[in-house]
Design brief:
Length: 307
């Protein structure tokens, strides 16, 4: 059994954004989280992360849920939608109190302030604290930011079940970060932390593209007094030029209404191979019977935390 949570209290989740149908990259993340819950005899929840209203595609949430069902991935309990949970985010904002302040800086202004930076700092938009002690002259509030401790630096470290030890200096590498955006939508960092806490999520299995944001979420968990889940970030699928497979890079839907046998051959088996499982199933039932012990073997071979 994993060094994470025991089978008795394991609660995992898959939390897609309804910006279009699932592609093979999102199927990999769904499969890994589903199988991890099954290996640990835990619960697997589904949450639709539709808090970003400008990016949502009408009907995408229904298509996502139908695709999961057609793949044989049944979730526990009711599906939740972030757009119906904004009261929880308002309550979290009130709890954060003086740690939150309005910011009037644009991304362009933040980028311009870092032209003299080199190395790792130059590769990310690190907020310089312009509005930390009040809006700069001539600025109007655009977003809400959360203060990160300055002295001593706020270093967040954790053990990822796949990637191992991860450490990030939020003060030096991130700065005060946005929890409510200039367009009025709640930022992913706050919404995901509040939702995971409210739903009792103990184990988060998702793509490695979100690994860099995890320290911000851990910091939010600390200041909100929420439990820290265990994390496992699986590799992400990339396209022919090395870009993460996504809707923005032209990823195509894997579920176009094909027969179950085609869905198995064209999507499920390739996703399993990407995760290190060599399966030869002839049906969906065969696939999942083989996939659960196969995922356990992947964990034993790959994850240092497996015991």
């Amino acid at each position: 059994m994993s060094a994470g949570n025991s089978a008795a209290n394991y609660v995992g989740r898959f939390a897609p954004s309804p910006t279009g149908p699932l592609h093979i990259g999102s199927l990999v993340a769904a499969m890994a989280s589903y199988l991890d819950a099954k290996v640990h005899h835990g619960q697997w929840l589904v949450r639709i992360e539709d808090v970003d209203g400008d990016r949502n595609v009408a009907g995408a949430d229904a298509h996502i849920l139908a695709s999961l069902q057609r793949c044989g991935m049944a979730w526990d309990g009711d599906v939740t939608w972030q757009s119906r949970r904004t009261g929880l985010y308002d309550a979290a904002l009130r709890q954060l109190g003086d740690l939150v302040y309005p910011c009037g800086c644009s991304r362009r202004e933040i980028a311009d302030s870092q032209l003299s930076l080199t190395g790792r700092q130059a590769q990310a938009l690190i907020y310089p604290g312009t509005c930390r002690h009040g809006l700069a002259p001539g600025k109007t509030a655009r977003a809400l930011r959360l203060k990160v401790p300055q002295s001593p630096p706020c270093v967040i470290a954790f053990e990822d079940r796949w990637a191992g030890h991860i450490s990030q200096d939020l003060t030096d590498e991130v700065g005060d970060f946005v929890i409510k955006r200039a367009d009025g939508f709640w930022a992913y960092q706050l919404a995901v932390v509040v939702d995971d806490g409210a739903q009792g999520i103990t184990d988060i299995v998702r793509g490695a593209d979100l690994l860099d944001s995890t320290p911000r979420q851990l910091y939010l968990q600390q200041v909100l007094g929420l439990p820290q889940p265990t994390y496992l970030h699986v590799p992400v699928v990339v396209n022919s030029v090395g870009e993460k497979l996504s809707k923005q890079t032209g990823a195509q839907a894997f579920d176009t209404g094909a027969a179950p046998a085609d869905l198995l051959q064209q999507a499920l088996l390739p996703a399993a191979r990407f995760l290190g499982m060599a399966l030869t199933a002839g049906s969906l039932d065969d696939f999942w019977r083989q996939a659960v012990p196969a995922w356990e073997n992947v964990l034993k071979d790959t994850c240092a935390s497996w015991r």
